Every structure is written in structure tokens, then in C-alpha cells.
Amino acid sequence: MKNTPLIYLLTLNSPSQRALRLWTGRSVHQLRHCSAKQIGSALAEMQKNVDDLQKHMRTLKQVKEQLASVPPAAGGRL
Questions:
Q1: How many angstroms separate the CA atoms of 35 and 52, rounded?
Q2: What whole-number distance in Å separates Cα of residue 59 and Cα of residue 17?
Q3: Half-sphere exposure (CA, 13 Å, Cβ side) for 36?
Q4: Per residue in 5-16, pLDDT tens?
Q5: In the chain, what are the domain boundaries?
Q6: Other C-beta atoms within 10 Å of 39: how many?
Q7: Which residues contact 40 (CB under 8 A, 6 or more apart)?
Q8: SS3 for 56?
Q9: Cα–Cα distance between 24 and 63 in angstroms, integer?
Q10: Over 90: is that where the pLDDT of 4 sits?
Q11: Are the CB atoms for 48 and 40 separated by under 8 Å?
Q12: Phi and psi dihedrals of 11, rounded to 5?
């Protein structure tokens, strides 16, 4: 279970609470309010994941551009 990724839920301006709240847990059923320290680490982890995703998206874009520049094979054969 230690390798199970954490789930994060960010709530903004809900009708009952006019504040930013961050929840975390190992599953949707185990979500708990984060402490201030947990919020800092959670936001840092989320930013790292966004950075990694952007890196992968750039790589995919480059591969797509390279594939688009390859002329099609003659007669449709490989």
C-alpha cells in the first residue's frame, strides 16, 4: 500500500465554505483535510507532476512533427 499514489482534491469557493481547501488520501473514501505543512508538500508534488506532464507533451509534439515530415512509403509498402 505504500506505493499507492495519493489522491488530491482541491475545493474552491464551495457554497458552504468560502475558502480554498485541499484534501488528500490514499483513496476517495479516505480523503482528509490537509494541514498547512501537507498543503505545501502536496502543491510541490502536484507542480512536479505538471512539469513532468509538460515535458512529456513536448516530447510527443516533437515526435509528431518528425513523423509528419517523413514522406509516405512508395506504394503504401513498408
A1: 25
A2: 41
A3: 0
A4: 777 677 666 666
A5: 7-69
A6: 17
A7: none
A8: helix
A9: 35
A10: no
A11: no
A12: -115, 135
